[in-house]
Specification:
Helix content: 25-40%
Number of strands: 8
Order of helices and strands: EEEEHEEEEHH
Distance between the termini: 38 Å
Low-confidence stretches: none
Mean pLDDT: 91
Strand content: 35-45%
Structural class: alpha+beta
Shape: globular
Length: 144
């Protein structure tokens, strides 16, 4: 049972991918702060906001893409607690087919970005949870 004193927040993590020469490549972003690391898109889910709406909003705000060709629920939510705040993160894959002029990375939030194939993307991710998520996404893409 959840402690009524504890604040519960929901967040999303979105691995944007596309295909290049029949292989998936993954978008990695580096936050615009000192000593940041490579990460997928992430952000809060607003009060009363649906998961898909939050995903579309974060992807549009961060890189300017509106609709996925396919949205994949990785079915691996994580739950963690820090002090009085409990957070649940929902992780998705977002299949994009951006043309070069479609993508507009918000350089106020992100200092750098790159597309990487799995062997380069996996070790670039700092958090073990992100590595597990990209491994699951990559496995699902190859099973399809």
């Amino acid at each position: 049972m959840r402690d009524p004193q504890r604040e519960l927040s929901h967040r999303i993590r979105v691995f944007v991918f596309r295909y290049h020469e029949a292989q998936p490549v993954y978008l990695l972003l580096r936050a615009a702060q000192c000593e940041s690391f490579w990460t997928p898109i992430h952000g809060p889910i607003g009060f009363g906001e649906k998961l898909e709406s939050a995903i579309r909003r974060e992807v549009m705000d961060d890189i300017g893409l509106a609709r996925p060709n396919r949205l994949i629920d990785l079915e691996m939510p994580s739950r963690w607690q820090l002090g009085d705040e409990e957070t649940i993160e929902w992780v998705f894959g977002f299949h994009a087919q951006p043309r070069a002029d479609d993508m507009r990375v918000d350089m106020r939030r992100w200092s750098d970005f790159r597309w990487a194939q799995f062997p380069e993307a996996y070790p670039s991710l700092e958090l073990e949870y992100d590595r597990a998520a990209i491994m699951r996404l990559h496995t699902l893409l190859h099973a399809a």
